[in-house]
Amino acid sequence: MSLPRFTVWGVTGVPEIGAGDDLVSHILQAVAAQEADDPEAALRDGDILVVTSKIVSKAEGRQFPAADREKVIAQDTVRVVAERVHPGGVTQIVETRHGLIMAAAGVDTSNVPDGIALRLPEDPDASARAMCAGLRERLGITLGLIITDTMGRPWRVGQTDVAIGAAGVMVTDDMRGGVDANGRPLQVTITVLADELAGATDLVKGKATGIPIAVVRGLGRLVTDVDAPGARTLVRSVDDDMFRFGSAEAYRLGYEAALAELRDGGQTTSKRVKQRQD
Amino acid sequence: MSLPRFTVWGVTGVPEIGAGDDLVSHILQAVAAQEADDPEAALRDGDILVVTSKIVSKAEGRQFPAADREKVIAQDTVRVVAERVHPGGVTQIVETRHGLIMAAAGVDTSNVPDGIALRLPEDPDASARAMCAGLRERLGITLGLIITDTMGRPWRVGQTDVAIGAAGVMVTDDMRGGVDANGRPLQVTITVLADELAGATDLVKGKATGIPIAVVRGLGRLVTDVDAPGARTLVRSVDDDMFRFGSAEAYRLGYEAALAELRDGGQTTSKRVKQRQD
């Protein structure tokens, strides 16, 4: 077809990944096996690989004893954003060291052996750059790579995959200053390509199917330098963040601030509360 | 390829849509024109059409004079979630009558003629059902249909498309109770397929290209009854919503509640503030 189009498929046959494994080699082997069945599966210039963070974590040795779960979550947490107690336990939404807002700091115990838990890669953009550079070198082609994780979101049910690491692919399409077909300024200004790619590939990767990698073909116009801005640039700045705390947490901060100001006469406490908000 | 895969392409040649237009006919004509160039473009059983809400609004006569913008935003707003004053004006995040949390209640002035603004469809799920049923009847095939709009989100920069209406397609994959490859409970429980489809197709639809419709082929397993639960079911319930207000707004509510309780001795005001939160 000569239409604007792209195709997404899952890379099957990736073996269970262990600490220290060369993930690039595993990917190339899995792709080669698919290629034997279907020449179309051979990677090409302009392809974008989308890789579940879980296998990156495994290769990077991010496994730890599940008994240490709370300790590791605390290590990976910069601050608690919101917390809710419910019959099943406590749901804590935190900001991770990567700037991601997610439950349990991304620590996961599904799709890992019993007694083991997994934390996110130390620096997902660096992981993406290393893998992207390795694949480009070994294949002699120019492709992009995204590392995904699964996140909930406010206001809407459920989870989707988003980009937590990226290399060699444009993470946003910044249309600020652009115009529509009538020459009028576009109100939507920054399309988040990397998250749209992450979500798209979740439709073939799936959590229950054991397919950790997908290929996107047909969007080669998004492929760029390995060192282009990564997924870290998708984290909103504190100044632009209107939802820095859960409503209950912010309400409580305001309530306590008023009480403290009245008790202390205002000056010092007001400053202290402001610091807690920053 | 016999791999798990799908393809996405844009439907080009959709004309400018006006109030009262039969959108189903316009879609069929545009598809037929593509089909003349490429037989693959003919719609088939299991295809999912993803349609930008803008053309649905236009067909449903949701245009209004741009001068009435503030009045219409107020009409479509259930409550203000967060507000921020900045050099360019005031950004107001509101909950619309549809349960969507978005800036300006989805009112848009891009890609419409000068002096005109556009509001969201009255009932996007109903619009989706009507279009899906019409297409199924006229083509004699079973396809799904999603209506999208563009939304910002907390914590992460930029915007992506999400589903605001859906018919004939599973909007979520509910894996609660499911297990991973090791037989352990899946921690991620509800994958939001409709939003992932919406984001995926934004990669070919694009705001500046004037392509308002995309087709997804290869995910026929997600196509279901026209009357299956729609996009309205993606709106999180009040009880599950930890981010019902912006942080500044919730902080102010807490602050005022404390002052009011101290002033009034507690009982009545505490009740009033609680009502404001509900």
UniProtKB/TrEMBL annotation, chains A, B:
Residues 14-218 form the Coenzyme F420:L-glutamate ligase-like domain. GO terms for molecular function: coenzyme F420-0:L-glutamate ligase activity; GTP binding; metal ion binding. It comes from the Bacteria. Its EC number is 6.3.2.31. It holds the Pfam family F420_ligase. Keywords: GTP-binding, Ligase, Magnesium, Manganese, Metal-binding, Nucleotide-binding, Potassium. This is Coenzyme F420-0:L-glutamate ligase. It comes from Devosia litorisediminis. The lineage of its organism: Bacteria, Pseudomonadati, Pseudomonadota, Alphaproteobacteria, Hyphomicrobiales.
